[in-house]
Amino acid sequence: xxxxxxxxxxxxxxxxxxxxxxxxxxxxxxxxxxxxxxxxxxxxxxxxxxxxxxxxxxxxxxxxxxxxxxxxxxxxxxxxxxxxxxxxxxxxxxxxxxxxxxxxxxxxxxxxxxxxxxxxxxxxxxxxxxxxxxxxxxxxxxxxxxxxxxxxxxxxxxxxxxxxxxxxxxxxxxxxxxxxxxxxxxxxxxxxxxxxxxxxxxxxxxxxxxxxxxxxxxxxxxxxxxxxxxxxxxxxxxxxxxxxxxxxxxxxxxxxxxxxxxxxxxxxxxxxxxxxxxxxxxxxxxxxxxxxxxxxxxxxxxxxxxxxxxxxxxxxxxxxxxxxxxxxxxxxxxxxxx
Length: 338
What we know:
By secondary structure, this protein is α/β, with parallel strands linked by helices. The protein has helices at about 15-20, 40-45, 70-75, 95-100, 125-130, 150-155, 180-185, 205-215, 240-245, 265-275, 295-300, 320-330; strands at about 5-10, 30, 55-60, 85, 110-115, 140, 165-170, 195-200, 225, 255-260, 285, 310-315, 335. The chain has a 13-stranded parallel beta sheet, with no helix packed on it.
């Protein structure tokens, strides 16, 4: 028996209306990404019994067509209770529509929600996520390039509703997301199972990273992105963060690490490579850091802790072509992007 969930693409209102009348018998993932579908077409779908078979719903990249009206219909529909994943990336929804949906029993099975690029999303959505009775299964939350602040993030991380989160993206919320958000995360009594943390392009410094790296909440962290932090030299991500990473008692599971465009230098990386905390590292991105030179590659080759490293991004650094050629000869299975 084939239990594979199939994908159905509905790209306009006419097709949506027709589909709503065509009975389905198996679960499916609904794709309406970058389409001509509007709130009207989605209303047809959500009102029909076929909606009880929707598992994943992709409405991404429909900025001019999908608004809060679709979330109101989704929240109040009779059959849309089986959805586990929804992407609203680059649509026109706001706090108002999300509040309606998040406060609805139809949000109860949601495990993943993508709000990337929704500038109308503010701390009000985070407050609703923290307070709703129906957020108990949320595992993945993308808040990249929204309008959230440290205050909203603190409220979310202080809520039991954050306890199942394993993936969190708060990237590109400069200057509203600062070290205070990392402090809130590090002190949370609930956010203790995080595997992926992406906070690229915010207003972070070594101070916030110190709190994070001294927290037991990163014990399961496998991916960390702190790239695109190049503020004043003494007020950004520097070798002090790498030093703290090298000696952290809790950074035991890191596999993917992105340091692109920070103020780190060779000395900090050499110290990190000498630490057991990089023993599971598989992907390292240190691109666009001009203070990284040939001695980093020499330390990498000599380290006993990097035998799992599969991919190294080292473009736009001060590493010479000769050093790269030598690395490729010594580590012929390592994929080097330069």
